[in-house]
Specification:
With 314 residues, this protein is mainly alpha-helical. The protein has 15 helices and two strands. A two-stranded antiparallel sheet has the order 1-2. A hairpin with a 7-residue loop joins strand 1 and strand 2.
């Protein structure tokens, strides 16, 4: 009966019902999802996209940060690339920082994670001990290490007093050692975080793979190379990507310990940008420096995207 009644509906009523059904379907599948993501999109527009567009505009201007901006075109970038020796030095320091953090903390974290993966009793205690430095505020870590490295009251001074010379130097005050010293302090706080991530990834590798490797006569080094590294490759690649980006954004430890000194020996792009914007009131020029930092981070992301499209499992 229902089928007969539906067939007897007028044509205009059937068309109206179809339009109503289409509206409901469109609203539920198109409008409702956008309503859910609208708050985060609005927040992203206000916090990220808006300031990014403003920074791009001000990078083309001569602006002190106060008052009207004078449009100068690409003059800031021309000065940045061809004339500013301090910027080149800061960029070189960032590249050195990148090379350090792509080798030393990753090597330490991989070795520690591989060793700790064999520990069955008390492993959580060792993880917590190595992870604690990462959750400490950078201000506290910088203060502690500044005192430890003091040539008059630090560890080196006490060793020299006990007859062990060579460590009572102002490592944070010498141009040849300052950048490496700051990198060492940052690495002390960072490598435990990497170790915990790698250890978690290693524990997701199927034990049967290691059993099969042992049956085939593989040693620990071969297991690490052919099973562990491929098994944690996605995590390893992601942290390489993030570390590469962070290396061009480093600011806190450099500023807290030396503010780029002595004589610019530890200046990085972020501290140089800060000085240009808030000490010399060259906000337009600082915006150009900020865009160059974003460009270098984008290059690193592009490399990973290229490798992923070429079939790399990263």
């Amino acid at each position: 009966m229902a089928t007969v009644q539906e067939q007897r509906l007028p044509a205009y009523a059937d068309a109206a019902r179809q339009r109503s059904t289409w509206r409901k379907r469109f609203f539920s599948k198109t409008v409702v999802p956008w309503l859910f993501i609208a708050p985060i999109l609005l927040l992203h527009l206000v916090v990220v996209i808006g300031p990014s567009l403003a920074a791009f505009y001000y990078s083309l201007t001569d602006w002190s940060g106060i008052g009207a901006a004078e449009f100068v075109g690409l003059k800031n970038f021309q000065e940045l690339i061809f004339e500013d020796q301090n910027y080149r030095a800061a960029l070189q320091h960032n590249v050195s920082w990148l090379l350090f953090f792509l080798t030393v903390p990753f090597s330490m974290a991989l070795v520690a994670a591989a060793l700790l993966a064999q520990v069955k009793r008390g492993s959580m205690f060792f993880r917590a001990i190595m992870f604690v430095p990462y959750i400490l505020p950078s201000v506290i870590i910088a203060s502690i290490w500044r005192n430890l490295l003091s040539p008059r009251m630090g560890v080196g001074a006490h060793l020299a007093h006990w007859g062990i010379p060579g460590f009572d130097h102002a490592f944070l005050g010498e141009k040849t050692t300052v950048l490496l010293t700051i990198a060492f302090i940052d690495n002390w706080h960072f490598w435990g975080f990497l170790m915990v991530l790698f250890l978690a990834a290693m524990q997701n590798i199927a034990p049967e793979l290691y059993d099969a490797a042992k049956i085939d006569g593989a040693n620990r080094r071969q297991e690490f190379r052919h099973i562990t590294i491929p098994g944690i490759l996605p995590t390893l690649s992601f942290m390489l990507l993030m570390t590469g980006i962070w290396s061009f954004l480093v600011f806190d430890y450099v500023w807290l310990l030396t503010q780029g000194g002595p004589a610019g020996a530890s200046e990085v792009m972020a501290t140089y940008l800060y000085k240009q914007a808030f000490n010399r009131f060259e906000a337009g020029y600082a915006s150009a420096i900020g865009l160059s930092m974003s460009l270098f981070a984008g290059v690193i992301i592009s490399i990973f995207i290229f490798l992923r499209r070429r079939g790399w499992d990263i």
